[in-house]
Amino acid sequence: MHLPNPIILIESLERANARIAIISTGGGSAALAHLVSTPGASAVVLDAAIPYAREAVDRLLGGPQESYCSSRAARRLAMAAWQQARSLGATPEQAVGIAVAASLRTRQPKRGEHRVFVALQTLRATTVAALVLEKDARSRAEEEELAAALLLECLASVPQGAAPATLLQGRLRPGEKIMLEQATAPEPWQALLAGSRQSALAIGSEAEPAGDQLVFPGSFDPLHDGHRLMARIAEEIAERPLVYELSIANVDKPALDYQEIAARAAQFRGQPLWLTQAATFVEKLAIFPMSTFVMGADTFVRLAEPKYYGGSQEAADRAVRTIADNARGLIVFGRARDGVFEEPATLPAPEPLRRIAYFVSQREFRIDISSTALRREQLACEPG
Description:
The protein is an alpha/beta fold. The protein has two domains: 6-184, CinA-like (Maf protein, Alpha-Beta Complex); 188-377, Rossmann fold (3-Layer(aba) Sandwich), CATH 3.40.50. Helix content is 34%, strand content 22%. It has 13 helices and 15 strands. The strands form three sheets. It has a seven-stranded mixed β-sheet. The longest helix has 17 residues, at 71-87. The radius of gyration is 23 Å and the shape is elongated.
């Protein structure tokens, strides 16, 4: 097997004080055995996982994925690995998450391309190496070895703190090329991911967040016309300008990587956008006290659901009281579900939340747009 020398690699990573978690799904798993069988690996490699079934990947990433072999899937897995390294004691500066998402040769001929995506997550940057292999030019074992080599060579770039200069030199066939992308984070984004800062204004100014604002939180994946119409109506109702809020943290999913943050932030084109670490609504209130919040019907219902508070009804009740006491108001929009528009005023919700809510009727707002459907359309247009 023609893989990088594991002794040299482990010694280099140890000198760099790196602490690594690895996730390999659909290829590249040979790299794990190559590393952990090396003396001294336990000082560097904290965890390694092979979630081979889609259900295992879904459990790691918080739900079904639009694609299991893509740059986004690999980046999400790398962030899950980075957070796993953190949970096992690595500092933000030490933690390294690396992941492989691949679609390789199988017993039955594939209709699609043979692809490998390796994503590397550090506090400083998100890096992705993407390779489309010449179809049926190698055996499955040869493709596996190539995926493992790509993972190890990306890992070897960690001590240098920069994107890999050359990868798989002399190993590729004519027409094969590795596409390399790296998003290096500004200091405020790094502080957010490290948890040393709770908010950072992505666009606009260096001002600190304040209370008594009109705030529209969301994942905005993607930002679409429905969101824009909601913002415009909310500004008319509240008679003030609106700011958007995007949390890089999520209750049951990996944090957003830097490429993802940059892509979502770019959608706002100069409109005020706060990046935060506020995964829960109570955390958002701590950053924007006594503010008015804009939300859809599904978010409004979730505010009181125990499953979003560790399954505790007591914690959910406590959160409802906190929201009712510390939010100036909630502007709630309905949505279409299975072709039927849900009037927000008819949604089940505790009375304390209903008292501070303004329910926008179907007459004032209706637009049937699905973020999931839009993501699928975008993915269908992306190469690889």
